[in-house]
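Deviation from plan, reported transparently: heme C complex.
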Amino acid sequence: MLPFQPISGAASDIRSLFTVVLIIGAIILLLVTVLVVYSSIRFRARKDEPEPRQIFGVRRLELFWTVSPAVLLGGILIYTIFTMYRVAPNIPVNEAPDLMIVGHQWWWEFRYPKLGVVTANELHLPKGQKFVTEVTSADVIHSFWVPQLGQKLDATPGRPAYMYIQADQVGTYLGSCVEYCGTAHAWMRIRVIVEEPQNFDAWVKQQAAIPTIPTTGAAGAGAKLFTELTCAQCHTIAGTTAKGTVGPNLTYVSTRETIAAGAAENTQANLEIWIDNPQVIKPGVHMPSLGLSANQISDLAAFLEALK
Amino acid sequence: MTEIPTAAESAHPASEAGEYTGLLGWVSSVDHKVIGIMYFILVLFFFLIGGIEALLIRIQLAQPRNTFLSPTAYNQIFTMHGTTMIFLVVVPTLIGFAVYFVPLMIGARDVAFPRLNALSFWMVVFGGLFLYFSFFAGGAPDVGWFSYAPLSELPYSTTPGVNYWALGLLAIGIGTVTGGINLIVTILTLRAPGMKLRRVPLFVWMVFVNSFIILFALPPLNASLVMLIIDRLLNGNFFTPATGGSAILWEQYFWAFGHPEVYIMILPAWGMISEVIPVFSRKHIFGYGIVAGSSVAIAVLSFLVYAHHMFAVGLGNPFDIAFATASFMIAVPTGIKIFNWIATMWGGKIRFTTSMAYAVSFLVLFTIGGITGVSFAAVPIDWQVEDTYYVVAHFHYVLFGGTVFALMAGLYYWFPKISGRMLSERLGMLNFWLTFIGFNMTFFVQHILGLMGMSRRIYTYPNLPGWASLNLVSTIGAFVLGLGILVLLVNMAYSLRRGKVAGDNPWKAWTLEWATTSPPPPHNFDEIPPVRSQRPLWDLVHPENPDWKHAGD
Ligand code: HEC
Ligand SMILES: [Cu+2]
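Because the crystal trials were delayed, the predicted structure below was used instead.
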């Protein structure tokens, strides 16, 4: 179970607290169950017995089961507060964010302002590095949650929220939007790829570069189509005139493992289905079907695949 | 209140049908018992609709990437399921029981304002019908039962569904507030001679405290519904960040209502448990004072915990700590009761009727819901599990394992009084076991799904390891649960005609409603026994050992 497989200090602090609360909870549940079952069996009425002795209450006992939970809960509260500050320490106001997460209906925009990289749905992190992260939204409320990374944080429009993100273990981890945000909320998933710092740097270098735009063959035809059709009004591709911001940045979409925030694997076939009619893969999505011919579709897909 | 004719004065005692007969007699009645029964019919109707919606949800989630429902249909259905169960089932059921039984339990002829009582009921009916009319008027609301802005605002929710939602809830909200006022005045002014406030049955006490929560919690909801309507229909900007409004403001208002609402849904249920367990254990409630007093503490605290629904917003540690502290505090008076009820069983002579089976299992299921509840108060845990299936499991343990199980206990307990006939125990036990097994199967696994990362309110999910099988278990459980409810319906239909005749007091209970016939006559009582303690009928049967001889009564 994911909160119990942490890959960060914050997530393991939460795990410790959770484990303690679960154990205490289990003991209390066991106590209540045993008492209930025992008294149900032990005090079962036999036929024609007289009424039992009437007891109206025992002050001392009642005091006992008022005070002892109060003390126990007080202890958990202190441990809770302690954990809160470890998981979410105050962030100095003048720290500029390393990472900006923007929720959109129904995809995630990840910006690295200090590195000049913008990508979508798949978040790359260097192992062991602490990122000041800003979370906000372009439309409705979303919530960013990757259980193994730690806390979730709502993406509220008009009110950025901040947290530290740091992953200490290389690998791919899954998360999703957890605040209901409309039709395709189910397909607003997150993929976090944690890499060794040198691999991360290589990734950054590649993502920040301006690609060479193909001019010949199917890919060249696709490039032309992309800027002539409405695609360019919604999507950005570096090195072209496409500067739209309604949809994800598509400069290096070919390097992503999935498309449409986890709704489909990133294959040539899926890309073509998507360009033909995105509603097939992700009903409700804010991208129209443009009624393109099969040739146009494969040209566009070839173009997107060519950008590496 | 003096205008209410007593039995002797009234020229023609209002029959059950009032001045009219047939359907019109029902519709025009202001008798609290008739209105109470109409509440039961209403909630049964909506319970079946809400239940069918739940089954549709579970069918859709039975396997990954299922296409049984479209996302839009699914989103409408889960929104309507939550809204229905809360506003049209649980709360009106509790009010229905209160309207029917409070006057009987305090030895009154009716509630203080019988006409207002009818108004409250019909507001709920019209609110409910209005809400459901949205299905035929462009689509039901699909923004969840807490309708977070700006998703619920015009730019993101263009169908009229949310308008129907807001206006429907406003009507229901007005009905609920007037109902609360009526119950408060009734309990304050119409108690039988000798029944001091300290002597009212615990159900009456819980209803009394609860009505104050209603009085203070519903206005924030009603106000914010009006603001939402202004936003949507008159271009207001209360909750639209793009034009200067605030999304957080809606959250604050909504939960300022929403959390007390949770206690509105559980307090009267605790009252029922506090009636049922003593009677079937043949013992006086253990610690009347502390059970009653802790409920007042809960009522006050319930207004101070609401922002624990907002820990993931990122409002800062000091803000979160304040609400976490209150949330830990409210666990104490809640936990106390469990032990008081167990102590009531301890040393008793327990009779395992269906009613008692529900009450006893309530103790364990509600404890599970309470413990997971505490894990939300521990803020960092909330940061993990909030808005996942862990939450869905948690509040179903509280509202189904808690409230609905208590309601079932209350139903089996009071059905004979309302109908004059006993529910079948054999069908009752079948109903109980199916419900108990089905309920746990449906919801226990959802804790695990939440911890595996499954977000709530998703219409489908990818085929991740373990997700498909646990969801399938949950779906099968839901059908077992549905079967259990079906058995209940059969039981009621059968017992209404063929059930054993109940007599005045089949359970040998001790409160005043059992001192009259089953069902009670229109004027409720021919004669009210003297009230000198919390259990007037015990005193009547045990003149050698009456309660009032004991200190503190
Ligand atoms: C009206 C705006 C709009 C237009 C026009 C548009 N798109 Fe999109 N596109 C979007 C949005 C919004 C998304 C994100 C969908 C989601 O995941 O919810 C998207 C997603 C995509 C993706 C998947 C990106 C990813 O990483 O998941 C591809 C590929 C894509 N669009 C290609 C195109 C092409 C090619 C065209 C032109 C034929 C086009 N789009 C036209 C709005 C648009
Ligand atoms: Cu979202």
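Residues 211 and 307 of chain A are 6 Å apart (CA to CA). We consider this an acceptable substitute for the interim report.
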